[in-house]
Amino acid sequence: MVNFELSEEKKSKLNWVRYLAVRILSRYERSDSYLDKLLANELKNNELTQQDKALLTELINGVVRWKLKLDWALTGFYNGDYQKCLNFVKNAMRVGLYQIMFLEKIPAYAAIDESVEIVKQIQGERTAGMVNAVLRNLHRSLDKIRYPDREEDLVYYLATVHSHPKWMVKRWLERFSEEDTEKLLIANNQRPYIPIRVNLLNSSIEKIKYLLDKNNVDYVQYEHLPQTFLLKNPKFDITSTEIFQNGEITIQDPSASLAVMLANPAPGYKVLDIAAAPGGKSFFLAELMKNQGSILAIEKYSSKIKSINEGSQRLKLPIIQTLVEDARKLRLQEKVDLIFADLPCSGLGTLRKKTDIKWKRDTDDIPKIVELQKEIISNAVRFMEKGSVLIYSTCTIEPEENQEVVYWLLDNYKDLQIDPAENYLPQEFCKDGFMQTFPHIHGIDGAFAARIIKV
User: Fold this and answer.
1) Among 353, 339, 441, which Cα is nearest to 395's?
2) Which residue among 85, 345, 395, 430 is the active-site one?
3) Where are the alpha helices (DSSP H) in 30-123?
4) How far apart are the first and last CA of the chain?
5) Residue 166 burial by Cβ neighbours in a 10 Å radius (0-12, 13-18, 19+)
6) How far apart are CA 180 and CA 7, in angstroms?
């Protein structure tokens, strides 16, 4: 294992942000930790400027997003067996090559020199010389990299050029056309926007729009949800702003907001939110209910409950109460008007912002997830009475986790039926009675939701 502890003399010779990127990537590869957790922990470092944090986030997510394509290029120019190379050295080269290939504002010589220096300080001159040769050769020969032949093996070509696992590409080619599959892969690799939604109980669309304009923030006001703004590369941390801390805005993707709009909650409702963390849907439900009624937010792990409690307090939503409980074992004394079940899923609709999911998932995961979904939803329907509404929601685009679970539910509970999403949402987000969004079609996260009523 590489020792990342450096003397002060060695530290002084390094670009600290790039060194941190290599260190985090190396820790990520040898642990089960999710990338966003490792990055979030490092971003708490008060010694980093906002510009440093932005670059660190870009390097970490960029390298993981484009890992397969970067490794393909490095393998072709590495003198020896690239797979046997130390992970630390691989990551130093990946960070350097990512900047060369994707960050036009950073001079190639600077990207190369910094990666070389990191390896030199930790591994010595000889390995650093190898890294220098590989990256300089690649810089001179980017247009000569030979990728798999598209005509000979379409899956291999698309997986390599667009940096996705082969099983995922194959799965989507079986469902979509070649053109749509490639558009989906391209959409998954775009840099994510930051979606903020105005809490209309505490602020106004006009005020937030004025502040964004005043601070020269590049944004798009989402057409179908005027209280939602999609921010492009803001130069500041949204969560540190006064409007966030005062509860005037929260962070929520439009796909999640649309699922809540499908729920159509009314003031005074008694609501059960299952698998509720981090709380975004509970928050929007409470806002639409005008803080009248009750919401019980269930989460299996106490560590996740904290984010719901903090968020509801920040947003001034006292009708939200929380309970640590496994949704499969939950017991309630009374029925509810609305159950919002945003269930565990493969997350394959969120690859743009959760770059490591595509490398952590496998084909075997989906059937296991589906069984869990069925267990949770089977217990949830116990709390419905005639007229009650169940929203079944996921952040994936896979039919096994979406439509097929709903059809299974309807087959097993004859007093349930679909209330078509077309009755509540714009037509472009609906198909066959369900809400379904896709990154390459709608420009937001891929998600699914079904509105089910008990008759």
Assistant:
1) 353
2) 395
3) 35-43, 50-65, 67-77, 87-102, 108-123
4) 61
5) middle
6) 51
Contacts of 168 (CB under 8 A, 6+ apart): 159, 348, 358, 361
Residue 171 clears pLDDT 70, i.e. is over it: yes
Question: Would you call 395 a catalytic residue per the annotation?
Answer: yes
Distance CA 143, CA 118 (A): 27
User: For 235, phi and psi rounded to 5 degrees?
Assistant: -90, 15
pTM score, two decimals? 0.94
Parallel/antiparallel/unpaired status of strands 336-342 and 384-394: parallel
Q: Over the stretch 208-248, which tens digit does the pLDDT of each residue have?
A: 999 999 999 999 999 999 999 999 988 788 999 999 999 99
Which residues, 6 or more positions from 105, have their beta carbon under 8 angstroms from its beta carbon?
none
Do the domain assignments include residue 123? yes
Please name every residue paired with 361 in a beta bridge, in sequence order, or none if there are none: none
3-state secondary structure at position 348: coil
Q: Is the model's pLDDT at 138 over the cut of 90? A: yes
Domain limits at 267? Answer: 254-454
344 near 365, Cβ under 8 Å? no
What are 373's two structure tokens?
A: 């979904």
Distance in angstroms (rounded) separating the CA atoms of residues 452 and 222: 27
Closest CA to 71 of 91, 57, 56, 86: 91
- Whichever domain contains 219, its CATH number is 3.30.70.1170
CA dihedral 3, 7, 13, 17 (to 10 degrees): 60
- Examine the domain organization and report whether 279 and 339 are in the same domain: yes
The Cα 406–Cα 392 span in angstroms is 8
Count of domains in the chain? 4
* Three-state secondary structure call for residue 47: coil
Measured between alpha carbons, how far is 412 from 144 in angstroms, rounded to an integer?
57
Q: Give the pLDDT confidence score for residue 2 in this predicted structure.
A: 60
CA distance 278 to 178: 36
Return d(Cα 391, Cα 339) in angstroms, integer: 6
* Among 317, 324, 329, 326, residue whose Cα is nearest residue 344: 326
